[in-house]
């Protein structure tokens, strides 16, 4: 399957990305990451416009990143302190950033941007290759929920506020574990469509990918606050760890 890692950034302009997700408060995630990073440095795969990377940097953790979209990386660079983050252009399933890292971060469901299992396994191996012994790979992703679909389609509100509404229209392709989505951002400035495709995986499959890469699960929480992961959890934050002697 041909794959262009910069597709996400071409379909979703960087300024629209920042507007659509401006309601997300990064503080709880950043608090957790500061502890897990153990002094750093951190490499963020799919660093985007720096939503998490910039506050992490301002908490004293050195951050580098990999990003396929030149537009997303350029927007990060324009922001205060953006010039302090080295961003390598490329696909995080294969691009190697020089150095050894205490933590590799893959946030906000971005593992699912890789279009098949082989590339997702390659991504876990690439994360492991960036880690120093004892280093951590942190993955934030949703839990697949086929029951939310009727006849293969679903429409759900993500955020409803006075000044904006964010909806997601989705089609499920269970045979290939793929989901095609378009987020619909509505405000008085107009309508923006934000398409994104996902090759989804249940947490257990991600755990197996980690094992193939020599990483072992240390934690799984329902969110960045560390809430227990239960039958009802719709998202997870999972911490994988490279062995001390590896
Ligand atoms: C959902 S955004 C997350 C951005 C940022 N991590 C955050 O939490 O706000 C996904 C980002 O990953 C980038 N991306 C997607 N697939 C990629 C790949 N295979 N290699 C590198 N970057 C990729 C996109 O261009 C986009 O900037």
Task: Write a structural description.
This protein has 7 helices and 11 strands. It has helices at residues 7-11, 14-20, 27-37, 53-58, 70-78, 117-130, 203-212; strands spanning 42-45, 63-67, 86-89, 101-106, 131-142, 153-160, 164-173, 178-187, 190-199, 215-221, 235-242. The strands form 2 sheets. The protein has a 7-stranded mixed sheet with strand order 3-2-1-4-5-11-10, sandwiched between helices. The chain has a 4-stranded antiparallel sheet with strand order 6-7-8-9, with helices on one face. Helix 6 packs across helix 7 (203-212). The longest helix has 14 residues, at 117-130. It is globular and about 50 Å long. The model has no long low-confidence stretch (mean pLDDT 96). This is Methyltransferase domain-containing protein. Keywords: Methyltransferase, Transferase.
Q: What is the fold named in CATH at topology level of the largest domain?
A: Rossmann fold
Output the CATH homologous superfamily of the largest domain.
Vaccinia Virus protein VP39
Helix residue percentage = 25-40%
The major β-sheet equals: 7 strands, mixed
Order of helices and strands: HHHEHEHEEHEEEEEHEE
**Strand line-up in the sheet with most strands:** 3-2-1-4-5-11-10
Overall geometry:
globular
When the domains are counted, the total is: 2
What is the C-level CATH assignment of the largest domain? Alpha Beta
Q: Report the uncertain regions.
A: none
CATH architectural category of the largest domain: 3-Layer(aba) Sandwich
Contiguous helical run count: 7
Strand content: 25-35%
Distance from N terminus to C terminus (CA atoms, Å) equals: 33 Å
Structural class: alpha/beta
Number of strands: 11
**Assembly context of the chains:** single chain
Small molecules held by this entry = S-adenosylmethionine
As a whole number of angstroms, the C-alpha radius of gyration is 17 Å
């Amino acid at each position: 399957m041909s794959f262009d890692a910069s597709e996400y950034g071409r379909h979703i302009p960087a300024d629209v990305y920042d507007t659509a997700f401006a309601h997300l408060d990064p503080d709880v995630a950043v608090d957790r990451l500061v502890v897990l990073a153990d002094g750093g440095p951190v490499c963020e795969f799919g660093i985007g416009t720096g939503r998490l990377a910039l506050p992490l940097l301002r908490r004293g953790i050195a951050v580098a990143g990999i990003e396929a979209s030149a537009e997303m990386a350029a927007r990060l660079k324009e922001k205060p302190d953006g010039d302090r983050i080295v961003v390598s252009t490329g696909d995080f399933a294969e691009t190697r950033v020089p150095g050894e890292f205490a933590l590799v971060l893959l946030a906000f469901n971005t593992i699912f941007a890789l279009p098949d299992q082989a590339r997702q396994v390659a991504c876990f191996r690439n994360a492991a290759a960036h880690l120093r012994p004892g280093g951590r790979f942190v993955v934030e992703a949703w839990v697949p929920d086929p029951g939310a679909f009727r006849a293969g389609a679903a429409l759900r509100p993500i955020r409803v506020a006075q000044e904006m509404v964010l909806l997601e229209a989705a089609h499920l392709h269970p045979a290939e574990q793929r989901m095609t989505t378009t987020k619909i951002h509505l405000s008085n400035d107009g309508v923006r469509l934000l398409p994104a495709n996902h090759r989804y995986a249940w947490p257990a499959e991600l755990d197996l990918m980690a094992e193939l890469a020599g990483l072992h699960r240390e934690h799984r929480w329902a969110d960045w606050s560390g809430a227990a992961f239960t039958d009802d959890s719709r998202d997870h934050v999972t911490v994988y760890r490279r062995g001390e002697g590896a």
